[in-house]
Amino acid sequence: MELISRSVVNGPSRAPHRAMYKAMGLNDDDLSKPIVGVSSTCNEATPCNIHLGDLAQHSKAGVKDSGCTPREFTAVSVSDGIAMGHEGMKVSLVSREIIADSIEIMMRAHRYDALVGISGCDKSLPGTIMAMARLNLPSIFVYGGTILPGIWNGKQVTIQDVYEAVGSFEAGKIKFEDLKNLENVACPSAGSCGGMYTANTMACISEALGIALPGSASPPALSEKRN
After folding, report:
1. pLDDT tens digits, residue range 32-78?
2. With contact defined as beta carbons under 8 Å apart, do 103 and 117 qualify?
3. Which of 89, 139, 141, 159 is the most exposed place for a label (fewest CB within 10 A)?
4. Cα 61 to the chain's mean position, in Å?
């Protein structure tokens, strides 16, 4: 089967295209191989995505080991946990479509042959998976993993406990100092919100759909299994 990337890098008329690739350190051997897009939603907007750049590097190494040439790019990602409760929440659902659109645009514009999609937040998981369905190219999904629980007053806590504690504070059941102490320890690391919300449920669904490796949904973000 003819690789779609050949329409970009093969033949005398594509010398300018190859020159652009060579400006990024690639050579003719790299360009003779299948070209695989490695998409992540890495950013500093949310702990769900802050570590995805590292996963992208491991994915690129795996792509190279398989005899292909990786090309990394990123898509936006909005954190519901930070966007909610104010004007920002109006753009959260819209961001899912933008994520899907941006991945599809990059893949179609550069005629990559396959896709590794890495994401770790409520809208970035379905957005990435939607792009894979639209593209109908060989694709694999990689989840960034859930956050580890924090410890407060001798028990495990998550971001949900912080939301509930806001209500307790407003009802006069706990002091502001208690709320602040909980806030400081509830989210101790990178990873998606600790609960069966959209990120973790979509990660499970990605396995059921067959676009993620079996067992890839459950290890936490900081687990060595993710490397």
Report:
1. 999 999 999 999 999 999 999 999 999 999 999 999 999 999 999 99
2. yes
3. 89
4. 17
Element (H, E) at 2: none
What is the domain range of residue 169? 149-188
CA distance 4 to 140: 18
Flag whether pLDDT at 206 surpasses 80: yes
In angstroms, the first-to-last Cα distance of the chain is: 32
Token pair, residue 2, equals 């003819």
Q: Do 82 and 168 sit in the same domain of this protein?
A: no
Q: For residue 220, what is the DSSP state?
A: -
pTM, two decimal places: 0.92
Distance of alpha carbon 103 from alpha carbon 125, whole angstroms: 12
Q: Is the dihedral of CA 126, 131, 137, 139 positive or negative?
A: negative
One domain, residues 83 and 154: no
Would you say residue 126 lies in a domain?
A: yes
* Gap between the Cα atoms of 163 and 60, Å rounded: 38
Average pLDDT, the chain: 95
132-175 residue pLDDT tens: 999 999 999 999 999 999 999 999 999 999 999 999 999 999 99
Q: What is the dihedral of CA 64, 33, 126, 101, to 10 degrees?
A: 130
